[in-house]
């Protein structure tokens, strides 16, 4: 069967194993997400009942080696992210928060004891994690964080606030980044610790089938063993953020592809002035422009995935992928919504839901402006952040 979203045989660039991973996730999305996502989105409900299935599919900590984790390649993880976000950004975000942020922080910066304690249960989905970096007044400037961890004998006392923390109200463990007298450090915080409070953020217009929270840390006491010893300074959380940004590069193209296919199908069926919308030149122009950007975006994601698997990907390359693919994806979703006319504003169709979600995806893990400046710094050698 011809794939109308693959104009250049992208499929031929994948191995049999990579296609098998993609096809398995695509089937899961088709059978368990698509029939239900409109209701979840409308009710602002995240389907926690899907977590065991996500674990069974090997999607939690997918790229991490050992400790009960699947140990799959970066390209396989990217293809899974693309298919999940074709269902909804909220589902891909869950996998990203759990694996690319919380589990990666432990895998990259934790002790052997911490890895053995947390990673197997998180890969199995029996323990959920969250990643507390962003603050109410911090946003794109985590170096200005106000959350502070004070040494107290052999332990620590944490005070501060975090905002937009995915899964915090349902997680069992939080990775909290705090300023100390020795710079920014990371801490493993069981969420049942006295002084930890997570409150879901309500009345969202985006990422409605997902959980984001405000977190308050009030005289929260931790033992010395809670410190992630391998993370010192902002490089610690940034290494985790680049894992999440990589998944977004693929995921955004999933939302774009789904919106494009929705517009294509609709334009073939919708009659105007006696013939299908697809038979008009302006419609074909829009469809062609969408398909071109989707094919280019997936090529970019695949190249970065191959570089990542070779251990050669650079931070500015991740920024290029995140900036380009989010920017193009949201334009595609908005154009697809317009092609659906008035029907496009209902949850009977996916493009506006995807476009709304991408307003968040385009913002988190670095805004367009931040990634532009990262690339500008790389190109010119001059930092323009301040």
UniProtKB/TrEMBL annotation:
* Gene3D superfamilies referenced in this protein's UniProt entry, alphabetically: Acyl-CoA dehydrogenase/oxidase, N-terminal domain, Butyryl-CoA Dehydrogenase, subunit A, domain 2, Butyryl-CoA Dehydrogenase, subunit A, domain 3
Q: To which pathway does this protein belong?
A: Amino-acid metabolism; tryptophan metabolism; Amino-acid metabolism; lysine degradation
GO BP terms: fatty acid beta-oxidation using acyl-CoA dehydrogenase; fatty-acyl-CoA biosynthetic process
In its UniProt record, a GO molecular function of this protein is: flavin adenine dinucleotide binding
Recorded hits in Pfam families, A to Z, give: Acyl-CoA_dh_1 (PF00441), Acyl-CoA_dh_M (PF02770), Acyl-CoA_dh_N (PF02771)
Q: Which cofactor does it need?
A: FAD
Q: Which residues form the Acyl-CoA oxidase/dehydrogenase middle domain?
A: 130-219
Give all residue intervals belonging to the Acyl-CoA dehydrogenase/oxidase N-terminal domain.
15-125
Q: Which reaction does it catalyse?
A: glutaryl-CoA + oxidized [electron-transfer flavoprotein] + 2 H(+) = (2E)-butenoyl-CoA + reduced [electron-transfer flavoprotein] + CO2
The name under which this protein is listed is: glutaryl-CoA dehydrogenase (ETF)
């Amino acid at each position: 069967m011809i794939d109308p979203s693959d104009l250049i045989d992208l499929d031929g660039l994948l191995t049999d194993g990579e296609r098998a991973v993609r096809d398995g996730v695509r089937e899961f999305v088709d059978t368990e997400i698509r029939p239900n996502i409109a209701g979840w989105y409308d009710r602002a409900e995240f389907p926690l009942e899907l977590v065991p299935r996500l674990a069974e599919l090997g999607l939690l900590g997918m790229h991490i080696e050992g400790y009960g984790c699947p140990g799959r390649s970066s390209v396989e993880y990217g293809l899974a992210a693309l298919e999940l976000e074709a269902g909804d950004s909220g589902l891909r975000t869950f996998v990203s928060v759990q694996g690319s942020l919380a589990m990666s922080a432990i895998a990259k910066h934790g002790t052997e004891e911490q890895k053995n304690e947390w990673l197997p249960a998180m890969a199995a989905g029996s323990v959920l994690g969250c990643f507390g970096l962003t603050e109410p007044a911090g946003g794109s400037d985590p170096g200005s964080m106000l959350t502070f961890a004070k040494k107290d004998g052999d332990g620590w006392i944490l005070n501060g606030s975090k905002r937009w923390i995915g899964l915090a109200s349902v997680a069992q463990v939080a990775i909290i980044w705090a300023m100390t007298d020795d710079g920014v450090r990371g801490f493993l915080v069981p969420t049942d610790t006295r002084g930890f409070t997570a409150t879901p953020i309500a009345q969202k217009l985006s990422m409605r089938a997902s959980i984001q929270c405000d977190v308050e840390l009030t005289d929260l006491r931790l033992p010395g063993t809670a410190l992630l010893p391998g993370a010192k300074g902002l490089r610690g959380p940034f290494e985790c953020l680049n894992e999440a940004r990589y998944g977004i590069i693929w995921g955004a193209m999933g939302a774009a592809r789904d919106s494009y296919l929705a517009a294509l199908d609709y334009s073939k069926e919708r009659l105007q002035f006696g013939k299908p919308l697809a038979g008009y030149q302006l419609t074909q122009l829009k469809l062609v422009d969408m398909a071109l950007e989707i094919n280019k975006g997936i090529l970019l994601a695949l190249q970065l995935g191959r570089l990542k698997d070779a251990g050669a990907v650079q931070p500015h390359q991740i920024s290029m992928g995140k900036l380009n693919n989010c920017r193009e994806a949201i334009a595609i979703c908005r154009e697809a919504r317009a092609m659906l006319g008035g029907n496009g504003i209902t949850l009977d169709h996916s493009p506006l839901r995807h476009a709304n979600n991408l307003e968040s995806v385009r913002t988190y893990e670095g805004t367009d402006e931040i990634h532009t400046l990262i690339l500008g710094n790389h190109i010119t050698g001059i930092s323009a952040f301040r």
